[in-house]
């Protein structure tokens, strides 16, 4: 039995496609005959290549104890950059699709306190996998699923059939200030080992952070998975800067309207990327000199201070940035 193709990615079969809501489809991916899928942890995601040249990240929804298949939930976004539309149109039952091995930047911690899982819309996907893992551990957890309406709930069948469906609360159509009030009621004052896990649109997570802060939760007690970072504002005419690639002895000018990765690519320097939105960490690079302007949502403050930066969305405050590549 083997489970990888030569480059470490996998080719899997789309076994089942199902409309969860008018906008959300679930995809069941299975290994090809004679192959197996790598194990994964709760909160993990995979890169999916629905069509050549396009890659998107999607969380695994299913129980990490069962890696005979991977289940994804994909919402067709109104302002799609092509990814969710391609997933909905290209991934049909029976077709093969290339995916990466699972990666995890949204892991469960081992603390014994309350685990409060807050999902905004399609952000429920990694939290479902986490719920299954927490239930298997016998952990104290509750999942709060916020959606615009009952008709926009995905994976109702999975939740209803689970042994932990009584841990799930649904909240519909809430906007601040009512949303804030409900979140405050859910969070209450933090206990020593309590953790918040959240995934959803940026404004939803901002409300959670503000409510948690007001109740005395520390930032370290909040574990978040972002869909995407705010794209950096690339302003023609603003300051450009120079990146020096220390290992190659190469200096390149990054104009005000281009990202560092674009300039590197144009110069024939290969940089591994995946999300290109500052959320996956694939392009993280050590900085030897200079002051980066961090625009990512992946690295922690400590990691920024330790001299790491993302090349897809971050820029430079100093005229020169020396990178360890
Ligand atoms: S490619 Fe994902 S953070 Fe840069």
Counting DSSP E segments of at least 2 residues, the number of strands comes to 18
The level of helicity is 10-25%
Strand order of the largest sheet: 4-3-6-1-2-5
Rounded mean pLDDT score: 90
Coarse structural class:
alpha/beta
CATH level-3 fold name of the largest domain: Rossmann fold
* Unique ligands: FE2/S2 (inorganic) cluster
How would you describe the oligomerization state of the chains in this entry?
single chain
Give the terminus-to-terminus CA distance. 37 Å
Largest sheet: 6 strands, antiparallel
Low-pLDDT stretches are 1-6
Question: What report would you give on this structure?
Answer:
Residues 1-6 have low confidence and may be disordered. The two termini are 37 Å apart. By secondary structure, the protein is an alpha/beta fold. It is globular and about 60 Å long. The protein has three domains: 10-99, Translation factors (Elongation Factor Tu (Ef-tu), domain 3); 115-226, Rossmann fold (3-Layer(aba) Sandwich), CATH 3.40.50; 241-323, Ubiquitin-like (UB roll) (Roll). It has seven helices and 18 strands. It is 19% helix and 29% strand. The protein has helices at residues 83-90, 124-137, 156-161, 178-187, 202-214, 260-266, 301-305; strands at residues 10-19, 24-31, 45-49, 56-59, 70-75, 96-99, 115-120, 141-147, 168-172, 195-200, 222-226, 241-245, 250-254, 284-289, 292-293, 308-310, 315-316, 320-323. The structure holds FE2/S2 (inorganic) cluster. FE2/S2 (inorganic) cluster binds at residues 273-276, 278-283, 296, 298, 310, 312.
């Amino acid at each position: 039995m083997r489970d990888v193709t030569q480059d470490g990615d996998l080719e899997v079969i789309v076994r089942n496609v199902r409309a969860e809501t008018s906008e959300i489809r679930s995809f069941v991916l299975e290994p090809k005959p004679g192959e197996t899928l790598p194990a994964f942890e709760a909160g993990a995601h995979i890169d999916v290549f629905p069509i050549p040249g396009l890659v998107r990240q999607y969380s695994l929804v299913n129980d990490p104890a069962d890696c005979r298949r991977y289940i994804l939930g994909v919402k067709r976004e109104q302002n799609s950059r092509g990814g969710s539309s391609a997933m909905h149109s290209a991934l049909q039952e029976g077709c093969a699709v290339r995916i990466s091995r699972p990666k995890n930047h949204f892991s469960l911690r081992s603390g014994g306190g309350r685990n409060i899982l807050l999902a905004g819309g399609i952000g429920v996907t990694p939290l479902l996998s986490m719920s299954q893992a927490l239930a298997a551990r016998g952990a104290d957890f509750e999942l709060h699923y916020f959606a615009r309406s009952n008709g926009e709930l995905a994976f109702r069948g999975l939740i209803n059939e689970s042994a932990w469906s009584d841990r799930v609360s649904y909240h519909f159509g809430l906007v601040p200030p009512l949303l804030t009030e409900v979140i405050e009621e859910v969070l209450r004052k933090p206990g020593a080992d309590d953790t918040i896990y959240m995934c959803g649109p940026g404004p939803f997570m901002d409300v959670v952070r503000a409510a948690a802060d007001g109740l005395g939760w520390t930032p370290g007690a909040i574990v978040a998975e972002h869909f995407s970072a705010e794209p950096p504002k690339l302003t023609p005419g603003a300051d450009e800067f120079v990146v020096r690639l220390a290992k190659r002895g190469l200096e390149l000018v990054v104009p005000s309207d281009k990202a560092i990765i674009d300039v590197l690519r144009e110069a024939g320097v290969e940089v591994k990327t995946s999300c290109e939105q500052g959320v996956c960490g694939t392009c993280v690079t050590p900085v030897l000199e200079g002051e980066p302007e961090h625009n990512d949502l992946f690295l922690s403050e400590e990691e920024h201070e330790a001299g790491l930066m993302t090349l897809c969305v971050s820029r430079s405050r100093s005229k020169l940035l020396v990178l360890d590549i």
